[in-house]
Amino acid sequence: YEIDLRGGEVRRIDNPSEMPNPGEIEAIREPWMDLTIIAPSRYIGAIMELTTSRRGIFDEMTYLDEERAQLKYKIPLGELIVDFYDQLKSRTQGYASLDYTLADMQAADLVKLDVLVNGQAVDALSIITHRDDAFFKGRELVNLLRGLIPRQMFDVPIQASIGSRIIARETVKAMRKNVLAKCYGGDVSRKRKLLEKQKEGKARMKIVGNVEIPQEAFMAVLSLGSGDKALK
Known about the structure:
Layout: E1 2-5, E2 10-12, E3 25-40, H1 44-53, E4 57-63, E5 68-76, H2 77-80, H3 84-91, E6 97-107, E7 110-117, E8 120-121, E9 127-130, H4 131-148, E10 156-162, E11 165-172, H5 188-208, H6 215-220, H7 228-231
Antiparallel strand pairs: 1-2, 1-3, 3-5, 3-6, 4-5, 7-8, 7-9, 7-10, 10-11
């Protein structure tokens, strides 16, 4: 990505963690690719649906023979490298082939989508995405992470944010221990005191506790996009 800063500097980045503060950014340009897909003509509809959902711009279509067609698109590199090839093979039963080359750099309304786990930003889960897609990708990502991050002894909030604005949230519920299991009858105030003590203990654990994020959670970022249609 190429970023024009308000001071006149042009900065090139290849990692979301290197994105400057939004207040310093004048414009952002992303790489666009010339994409060529060859596939049986019966899959043209599925290919067009996929490329359009990834911000692809149709260029031309040529029939190579009675059964095969060649489609040309322009598409952002960021949309191409995340699960596009797997989705293309899936929707064409493995018959499609693709080739792409760098076309140019184009200005776009891009934002950095951060993921916070238990209030802490996880740089490895951050992505750069188009503003129009940020809400759907943020919601999909926190839903995926909720199913992948193990339960703790305290609630673990998972949030997607753009700057200081939270756009999606899910919670991994705490494992619950029945502290009243050995209280048969007895004074209600004692039971209440045990529950309050458990609540205070979980609050302390949440402050100092570290949440271990499994490798599958980081791989989930690479599968973003396959669920866009369902979410929208």
